[in-house]
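Hey, quick one: can you model this chain's 3D structure?
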Amino acid sequence: ANFTPASQRTFPAKPADCFLELLGTLPQRPYDEIGVYDLGGVDIEEANELRKLLQPKACRSGADALLYSANGAGEYVKAIAIRWKDAEPAPAAPASDESVAAPADPR
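Sure thing. Here's the predicted structure for all 107 residues.
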């Protein structure tokens, strides 16, 4: 599969066997596109085969998921490696903000 980066931006690599979500529809969660894998000419019949093929490369590129698409014949034609925007460590919140998030006292 040929890979085309989406931009010059890079992300920290993950282990080659990292957990990789497979998505057949656009996620509602915000994400960054890492790049596109062109699957033309690759014979893949199941999503798990797609994961096995691309997992090492996608994980090393920092991907959290693959957003795949198929043609009218049901053949996988491309997969977009994505990284969740909220996967980055959140900045530590000041202790005073914790009281804001606490549930109100029902009394």
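One thing worth noting: The longest strand covers residues 76-84.
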